[in-house]
Amino acid sequence: MLDRLNQAMDHIESRLDRRIDAAELARIAMTSEYHFRRMFSALAGIPLSEYIRRRRLTVAGAEVIAGRRTLLDIAVRYGYTSGEAFARAFRAVHGVGPGEARRTGAALRSQPRMSFRLIVEGSSSMRYRVVEKDEFRVVGRRKRVPIVHEGMNPALVEFIRGIGPETLARLEELSDQEPRGIVGVSDNIDPSRAEGTEMDYLHGVVTTAPAPGDLDGLVVPAGTWAVFESSGPFPHTLQYMWRDVFTQWFPSNPYRSRPGPEILGTRLSGDGTEADAELWIPVERTSD
């Protein structure tokens, strides 16, 4: 898998001055576009689109300093429709406009070319199981919230605290299948998964019952799920679990992620500093 990812990275480098199609990158990596984007962001730490933007502006920065082309020629070469759009993007990455950079020889920021390699330590194992699940519903309260990769998510915390105990008790009574109890469901996630982009979050239960009129519902089609277990400090262990699934488990197993909601069940310790968690990720086999 990593060899194919690196072939996709070579393709990006060969087309920095042309259109780069994520579907073509996924084809080179021999996976789906959905899974390729997820895998890339987990391994690289930034979304695919942001990496391509930074690489283009890194190479464009070298051309700006070299002074052999006009600024407009450079802008057009790297996909910008106007000098103004190029200048805004250039400043966002380098902290200085292209004209000033050329006049003063200002220091620019560089996004290094990435490649991937697997470091095998063998010091820990990941607890998981694969489950075939019929169609089910999630019933609860829904809100669109920003994505936060590390630490507490203030918007999410405020939303959950606003759900009254009576509503939570009603929901608990509807829970009739795995994963049991109150769960957090992430759905309609921005494809980039960049910090600050948004997703639908549903705080509720997995059930066969229809949603009461005053609650939100989500119907989830039948499919295959990989279920991961983790224990440790809250909330960091939960956030790292997502990263570990995509950087460790997927490259080592014949599965890829598929579109669908991701479900997290959490049991907090009495003081709220530790948690046992169960993460459900929709998957499909890559080979038999």
Termini gap = 16 Å
Order of helices and strands: HHHHHHHEEHHEEEEHEEE
What is the rounded Rg?
22 Å
What count of helical segments does DSSP give?
10
Strand residue content? 15-25%
What are the low-pLDDT stretches, counting only 5+ consecutive residues below 50?
Answer: 120-125
Report on this model:
- This protein is an alpha+beta fold and 288 residues long.
- Helices cover 39% and strands 25% of the residues.
- The protein is built from 10 helices and 9 strands.
- It has helices at residues 2-14, 22-29, 33-44, 48-66, 71-77, 83-94, 98-104, 154-161, 165-174, 236-252, and strands spanning 127-133, 136-146, 183-187, 198-207, 216-220, 223-233, 255-257, 262-268, 274-285.
- Strands 1, 2, 3, 4, 5, 6, 7, 8 and 9 form a 9-stranded antiparallel beta sheet that branches.
- A hairpin with a 5-residue loop joins β8 and β9 (274-285).
- The longest helix is centred in the first third of the chain and has 19 residues, at 48-66.
- The chain is elongated and about 70 Å long.
- The two termini are 16 Å apart.
- Residues 120-125 have low confidence and may be disordered.
List the helices and strands and how they pair.
Blueprint: H1 2-14, H2 22-29, H3 33-44, H4 48-66, H5 71-77, H6 83-94, H7 98-104, E1 127-133, E2 136-146, H8 154-161, H9 165-174, E3 183-187, E4 198-207, E5 216-220, E6 223-233, H10 236-252, E7 255-257, E8 262-268, E9 274-285
Helix pairs in contact: 1-2, 2-3, 3-10, 4-6, 4-7, 5-6
